[in-house]
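Up-regulator of cell proliferation-like domain-containing protein: structure, please.
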Amino acid sequence: MGNGKYKTGLKGRGDADVSEDLRQAITDCLPSASTFRLEDVSKHFDISADEEDDDDCKTGKEAAQQMIRLLKEKDLTEIKKSLLPCQGKLWHQWCKMNKELNRPQGDDPEIEIS
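Here you go.
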């Protein structure tokens, strides 16, 4: 509509459609030149923000990149076998044995369960 007034219909529309219309209306209302940056706000209000040249951020970023390289280099099943040994075949074997050991035995399983 005009002069910053917007109308959107709600009847018979899903949440996704309505939220998309609201996002578009808000985007249209805001000037394109204004951007929100946490770094700018933190300079004015004594708020500490992580910066990319901070040692902790560098360490975390390097660890994430190393994990991504590992995922790209090896097959996912090989990674699971090496890093998560109790999640694969061994785990399934243990579950099967545990079920067999705890399964009621004998002629009348109801008596054994009670």
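Notes: The chain has a mean pLDDT of 78.
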